[in-house]
Amino acid sequence: MTPLLEPSEGIPEVVADAGAYAEALERLAAGSGPVAVDAERASGYRYGQRAYLVQLRRRGAGTVLIDPVACPDLSGLDEVLASDEVVLHAATQDLPCLAEVGVRPRRLFDTELAGRLLGHPRVGLGSMVETVLGLRLEKGHSAADWSTRPLPEDWLRYAALDVEVLIELRDALERQLVESGKLEWALEEFAAVASAPPREPRADPWRRTSGIHRIRDRRGLAVVRALWNERDAVARDRDLSPGRVVPDSAIVAAAQAMPKSPQALAELRPFTGRLARRYLMTWFRALDRARALPESELPVPSTPGDGPPPVNRWAEREPVAARRLEAARGVVTSLAQRHSMPPENLLQPDPVRRLAWSPPRPIDAETVAARLREYHAREWQVGLAAAPLAAALRAAEAG
């Protein structure tokens, strides 16, 4: 295995002013072929998921590192890339932060997604580079605080290497997709990722507090909600990851203990951090407001969704639906094995559950295909799965 230790043209200077940015755009526009793109965030350190470094590489242009803090409007880069294929690894992770700075690729090649469709057992960038190209890529700074300025030289080396061989990886994976007959499938997947609308904000995000399952009553849930919202406001104001202000464990501990005074709150073990103590009265006032809420304003234990109920209740409530689900899952698993890919890439679990809970009538290949399209399945998935799923659902109903 050949280690990849240095960028082929050295570590480029970071683009951090208008003149360097304009020159970088000229170089990229003069290059040819796909453009490798990556972005580094400060997850776990800063509020939100903004990009703190954008890396690009193109044949004939070399590698470009752009500081989106110094150059926050990259719409000019978006214009340069408008008609070009952009190569990303795990595109759904980087597309939101790229969109924040004005970069919205129209054509994608996602090397991670290609690896999944091809059945590669490990699809991290380092693993893919090793397996496909025979190179070892150092991955030592992926969890670093990329909001740091100036960025250390070894971090910049790491960032440049992340796009150093991404085009070569893309080309090798495309050859594998052609050889396996999966290129058209991959192109459908890439187009779906590129055209997906921005994710809607999650309803009641406080419900994702780690450990919330230990809160058994509505009053405790009201405390979790109140403390989560206060923490989010402080984190946003200070541009810090919420977990660095107060950990989830502190919120859950307060909801369980219901302390009657700020001092009692401060004595809870998770409330030991500097910011936890600095904003102690903020947390206590939020807790007190939740304690005083009337019953009618307390949150319910869980919010109803628009899909079927939890699967663990099906066997008792709807045994026929449970049989349909088991049969449908068997079909997806079998097809995925036959085509050497994870079942969730052949068909996502949610449409399988919905189809099993409420199948179309009559149950046949045509009606199942129409229902899968309603659930945003791609045409290659519909073509593979509709007929065998219809047959399995009918057999399950027949008992």
TrEMBL record:
Organism ancestry: Bacteria, Bacillati, Actinomycetota, Actinomycetes, Streptosporangiales
Official protein name in the record: Ribonuclease D
Entry-linked CDD domains: RNaseD_exo
Entry GO MF terms: 3'-5' exonuclease activity; nucleic acid binding; nucleotide binding
All copies of domain HRDC, residue ranges: 217-297
Gene3D superfamilies cross-referenced by the UniProt entry: HRDC domain, Ribonuclease H-like superfamily/Ribonuclease H
Organism listed in the record: Allonocardiopsis opalescens
One Pfam short name: DNA_pol_A_exoN
InterPro entries: 3'-5'_exonuclease_dom (IPR002562), Exo_C (IPR041605), HRDC-like_sf (IPR010997), HRDC_dom (IPR002121), HRDC_dom_sf (IPR044876), RNase_D-like (IPR051086), RNaseH-like_sf (IPR012337), RNaseH_sf (IPR036397)
